[in-house]
From TrEMBL, chain A:
GO terms for biological process: translation. This is Large ribosomal subunit protein mL51. PANTHER family: LARGE RIBOSOMAL SUBUNIT PROTEIN ML51, MITOCHONDRIAL 39S RIBOSOMAL PROTEIN L51. The gene is MRPL51. Its main location: mitochondrion.
Automatic annotation (TrEMBL), chain B:
One of its GO terms (cellular component) is ribonucleoprotein complex. This is Large ribosomal subunit protein uL4m. GO terms for molecular function: structural constituent of ribosome. It comes from Tursiops truncatus (Atlantic bottle-nosed dolphin). Belongs to the universal ribosomal protein uL4 family. SUPFAM superfamilies: Ribosomal protein L4. GO terms for biological process: translation.
Length: 131, 294
């Protein structure tokens, strides 16, 4: 035991790690095992490029030009009623939402909307370079 | 010689529009006799449809074969003339790109929304006094630097990305797409979309025999007048789409490898797309009645 301790005593100390055979050296992955990093690829997600929605995308977008202008493509858009066929920045969207559906919103949501409108108004019209 | 020089000088000085109109007038008075197309074996190939709308003098109509879906071998039944301003327009790829991106984005409404520090529940009280506790100073527990706090500059509410390209740009996009399809041999004109059977396999084998490609866009004139066989066959196949003529658009034409039009559809497309070349700017939207436009 004392001979073994003596024979290995010269590898104690980090300066002589190069003399140690490779199988003895400890190594780390570089990342503590608490941050779970995956080393394999996840299974590839299968995307059907020809389902009903993707195959028929864009059909009837030219309904005005090819169909006597009875309908406008903006009438095809499905979404919140205050955003159909209209675009605006955040303050404009908030104001339009309040005008169009404000009377039937929940009280908390309406209160938050009013706070947001007043904050954005002050932000755009009183602060910053462009006012 | 002097007469030739004078004629040349006069032709150069006269503006191009006048020359076109004068040639059109001459053509209207005496319809020029076009030589009958002759096949290589010496038989006459029937021209099944001529171009009704006036063609400018310096251009000739483009010709395409008319096929049939009733049999495998029924390609080349006859010829049809296609208007050059619709089927042989300048190949403006930038307009194609603009129209394709417009189609992708104008319908988009993004529903991403995050709560700001004002909307997150709680956080009205100052967590600890300003001075004395030794900790950093804070005003609320829901500020963006806190865990569980609101997001400072996150997506706000349903956002719409709606915009409209000018009508003439969208029209030109359709013309360019049709031109590109014809020029790359991906356009096939059919007399009508009648099939002998309602079997989807028949349609797939036909497309494979005629080397149409993986995906085919079939366009008929009206939704109600589509034959039952083609409706059943196309509903059984994923990559074969059947749309009425009103549903034609650049995105679908680029997504499907082949485009199959019927003769009435070609007439409708030419009429609708050429009208925009010579219309007045709208004083009020076109959906309201005009005296001379139906």
């Amino acid at each position: 035991m004392r001979a073994m301790a003596g024979s290995l005593s010269w590898v104690v100390g980090r300066s002589l790690w190069g003399q140690v055979p490779l199988a003895c050296r400890s190594f780390s992955l570089g990342v503590p095992r608490l941050f779970h990093v995956r080393v394999t690829l996840p299974p590839r997600k299968v995307v059907d490029r020809w389902n009903e929605k993707r195959a028929m995308f864009g059909v009837y977008d030219n309904i005005g030009i090819l169909g006597n202008f009875e309908k406008h493509p903006k009438e095809l858009i499905k979404g919140p009623i205050w955003l159909r066929g209209w675009k605006g920045n955040e303050l404009q969207r908030c104001i339009r939402k309040k005008r169009m559906v404000g009377n039937r919103m929940f009280i908390d949501d309406l209160h938050n909307l009013n706070k947001r409108i007043s904050y954005l108004y002050k932000c755009f019209n009183r602060r910053g370079k462009y006012r | 010689m002097l007469q030739l020089v004078r004629a040349g000088a006069r032709a150069w000085l006269r503006p191009k529009g006048c020359r076109g109109l004068k040639a059109l007038a001459e053509e209207a008075v005496q319809p020029a006799e076009k030589p009958e197309p002759v096949a290589s074996a010496g038989h006459r190939v029937p021209v099944l449809r001529r171009c009704e709308l006036p063609v400018l003098a310096h251009r000739r109509p483009v010709q395409a074969w008319v096929e049939s879906l009733r049999g495998y071998e029924q390609e080349r039944l006859g010829l049809t003339e296609l208007h050059p301003d619709v089927f042989s327009a300048t190949p403006r790829l930038d307009i194609l790109h603009q129209v394709a991106i417009w189609q992708k984005n104008f319908k988009r409404i993004s529903y991403a929304k995050t709560k700001t520090r004002a909307e997150v529940r709680g956080g009205g009280r100052k967590p600890w006094p300003q001075k004395g506790s030794g900790r950093a100073r804070h005003g609320s527990i829901r500020s963006p630097i806190w865990r569980g706090g609101g997001v400072a500059h996150g997506p706000r509410g349903p956002t719409s990305y709606y915009y409209m390209l000018p009508m003439k740009v969208r029209v030109q996009g359709l013309k360019v797409a049709l031109t590109v399809k014809l020029a790359q041999d991906d356009l096939h004109i059919v007399d009508s979309l009648e099939l002998p059977t309602a079997d989807p396999q028949y349609l797939m084998e036909l497309a494979r025999y005629r080397r149409w490609g993986d995906s085919v866009l079939l366009v008929d004139l009206e939704h109600e007048d589509m034959p039952q066989n083609i409706v059943a066959a196309a509903s059984g196949l994923k990559t074969f789409s059947l749309v009425p003529a009103i549903g034609l658009n650049v995105h679908s034409m680029l997504k499907h490898q082949t485009l199959v039009l019927t003769l009435p559809t070609v007439a409708l497309l030419e009429e609708k797309l050429l009208w925009h070349d010579s219309r007045h700017t709208p004083l009020y939207p076109f959906r309201l009645p005009y005296r001379d436009f139906p």
